[in-house]
Amino acid sequence: MIIGIYNRAGAVTFSGLLLAVAACILSFQQHVNWAVICLMSAGICDLFDGWIARRMNMTPAEKTFGLHIDSLVDMAAFGLTPAIILLHVGFSGWIDGLLFGLYGCCAAMRLAVFNQNSMAPQQVRQGYTGLPVTYAALIFPVVLLLEKWLSAGAFTGIVRATVLVVAVGFVLKIPIPKPRGGAYGFFVLLFLALTILWSRN
């Protein structure tokens, strides 16, 4: 016997983790384009694992396990992987190290608070508090595309500012609506458009 709970939603969650690992490996091999595509694909997995889970007849134990495993995977996929990709794009200075450290800490705090709030049965959440870490899978690919049209100095400044703003966004007490209905289609179309751009970049 092995530990753990295995179901369709979990398979999608772990697919996202495998894609994040692939993104890290591809970054080390200097295949940044494909690393970014894997990061975005991990984001799509995270978008739909919850959608699948809500349509399953899960026990309380399965729901709790899914909540925790999803946050652990999110930390690896969206709290660490973007920093590794940026490191191999050339953001390797001491300022970048500080920013990545802050980014990782804010992502961890965001996910811990999310888990805490999700386990409070008396609360019915209509949205998120703070920027969901998964949004990093779309924000950074968009910002990195700007390299073509900006000077080196401007590009560096914008990327560093984005890391800082996203990190702060994770822990700001601001309401963010949950994706519903057509939002899923919008994110899929955006993913496809960005995938085409990065595959040709």
Structure description:
This protein has 201 residues and is mainly alpha-helical. The protein has one domain: Four Helix Bundle (Hemerythrin (Met), subunit A), CATH 1.20.120. The protein has seven helices and two strands; from the N terminus they run ααααβααβα. The chain has helices at 8-28, 32-53, 60-89, 94-118, 136-144, 152-171, 182-200; strands at residues 127-129, 175-177. It is globular, with a radius of gyration of 17 Å.
Give a topology summary.
Layout: H1 8-28, H2 32-53, H3 60-89, H4 94-118, E1 127-129, H5 136-144, H6 152-171, E2 175-177, H7 182-200
Antiparallel strand pairs: 1-2
Which short descriptors sum up this protein?
201 residues, mainly alpha, Four Helix Bundle (Hemerythrin (Met), subunit A), two-stranded antiparallel sheet, 2 strands, 73% helix, 3% strand
Per CATH, the class reads Mainly Alpha
* Total tally of structural domains: 1
Structural class label: mainly alpha
- CATH level-4 homologous superfamily: CDP-alcohol phosphotransferase transmembrane (TM) domain
Q: Helix count?
A: 7
Order of helices and strands: HHHHEHHEH
What's the N-to-C terminus distance? 46 Å
> From the alpha-carbon coordinates, what is the Rg to the nearest angstrom?
17 Å
Quick description:
This protein is mainly α and 201 residues long.
